[in-house]
Write a sequence for this structure.
């Protein structure tokens, strides 16, 4: 496997596992979700992020798990950027979601190539 892909996958998995746990346990994340106007989605968001992180870890053995997890996280980051736009966060507020989107899009692309679904030569 490509070492850059493995590294991106690991960074995303660890980051979303930590963020997901934080969503479920910290007062700061409760406050953030109130600020977003989405307090009822905090637990679901945290659970989905933790599930996707586990999927990324499983992806080292079962590649389709990484593909599905990274796709889900990419979509989640698009929604996160939309939420930031809606609440009129400054551009810096979008940076974390954008970086996570790009990181997971890279993982998706890597697994599409690895699984033979996509090729730069086609």
């Amino acid at each position: 496997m490509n070492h850059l892909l493995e590294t991106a996958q690991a960074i995303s998995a660890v980051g979303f596992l930590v963020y997901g746990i934080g969503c479920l346990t910290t007062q700061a994340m409760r406050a953030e979700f109130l600020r977003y106007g989405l307090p009822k989605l905090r637990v679901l968001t945290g659970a989905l992020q933790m599930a996707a992180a586990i999927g990324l870890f499983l992806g080292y053995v079962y590649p389709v798990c990484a593909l599905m997890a990274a796709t889900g996280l990419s979509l989640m980051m698009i929604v996160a950027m939309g939420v930031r736009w809606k609440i009129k966060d400054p551009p810096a507020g979008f940076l974390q979601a954008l970086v996570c989107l790009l990181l997971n899009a890279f993982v998706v692309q890597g697994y599409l190539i690895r699984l033979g679904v996509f090729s730069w030569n086609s």
Remarks:
- The chain has five helices and no strands.
